[in-house]
Amino acid sequence: MQKIPMTGGGLLRLEDELRRLKSEDRPAVIRAIAEARAHGDLSENAEYHAARDRQSFIEGRILELEELISTAEVIDPSTLSGDQVKFGAHVELVDEETDKESSYQIVGVHEADIKLGRLSISSPLAKSLIGKSVGDSVSVPTPGGDKTYEILTVTYK
Question: What b/e readout covers 105-129, taking b as 16+ CB neighbours within 10 angstroms?
């Protein structure tokens, strides 16, 4: 079974979601199904069908999370160092065309959230950054044409 790289924080978020699904969401949907059944004819009961759909989603997500957690390989970025970009690195970039600065942490696929600055290791930008050092320029293919970034800093926290 292939291990999935993940930060400790990413694993904690997945474990919290799994706990919530099992302790709150699953019991709530079971109550909703029981309540909808009490209303009578199930063939025309929209509440019952919606609750069953929700139950199916919750059970599927629980299975998915259990699989992800069991195959997670936690990598602690604070044990890494250097100015070369690796998994877990916090990277500050500047767009060489617009001079706009941005910063990202390179994380596992299942913990990525671009709004929070967590960039998936499998994204084109992260793939371009891996192995590069401070001062290097990287070219990233985008739908609007290639973008070029310069690496300003690389830190491990």
Answer: bbbbebbbeeeeebbbbebebbebb
